[in-house]
Write a structure and sequence with these properties.
Blueprint: H1 3-18, H2 36-47, H3 50-67, H4 75-89, H5 99-125, H6 132-156, H7 158-161
Helix pairs in contact: 1-3, 2-3, 2-4, 2-6, 3-4, 4-5, 5-6
Length: 176
């Protein structure tokens, strides 16, 4: 993987996620919009080797904590790291080549990651935001619909990022 190019893509995703550009497509009132960092985490966790996927998952979680509404560090880093690592370990079982499977994987991951992050935020601050469940399910649905299209864009960048297509059951080792 070409890390400098990945950091450039991460910067673009972070600016889109933290800025006001996604507010154009956000639902009015509840401010529900797709979670681009989480979509990127699912993409990279399913395309990278285990150690790189875990590193990218923690990095994306750290960026999600930095660009979040609250200035509390940790909940998204922990959530992204745990479930990104889990998805990477399950990549032999969970194949995300078709758009339907991509959407379903993104939907489940948004529910798990954002749900755990909300639980950790609640335990740390004893504050529960308004309409937490509606925003959680709405973000999961919106990300699942938007995700496969973002996946196509990221798939087009795989050669530029230095991602190689892996065999389904791990790397093939030839012994001499």
């Amino acid at each position: 993987m070409r890390w400098i190019r990945f950091l450039f893509i991460l910067l673009i995703i972070t600016v889109l996620d933290a800025g006001n550009l996604l507010n154009i497509i956000a639902t009015p009132g509840l401010h529900i919009r797709p979670d681009l960092l989480l979509i990127a985490m699912v993409f990279f966790a399913s395309h990278l080797e285990t150690t790189n996927a875990m590193t990218v998952s923690f990095l994306l979680g750290f960026v999600a904590d930095l660009s979040g509404e609250l200035s509390i560090m940790g909940p998204y880093t922990i959530s992204f790291g745990i479930f990104g690592s889990l998805l990477c370990q399950l990549r032999k079982v969970v194949l995300v080549r078709r758009m339907l499977y991509q959407a379903l994987t993104i939907f489940v991951m948004v529910l798990l990651i954002r749900g755990l992050a909300q639980l950790l935020l609640m335990l740390k601050t004893q504050h529960v935001g308004a309409n937490v469940y509606i925003v959680l399910w709405g973000t999961a649905a919106y990300s699942a619909v938007f995700g496969p299209f973002a996946w196509m864009i990221l798939s087009g960048l795989t050669d530029w990022l230095g991602l190689r297509e892996r065999p389904r059951y791990g790397p093939i080792r030839i012994r001499h």
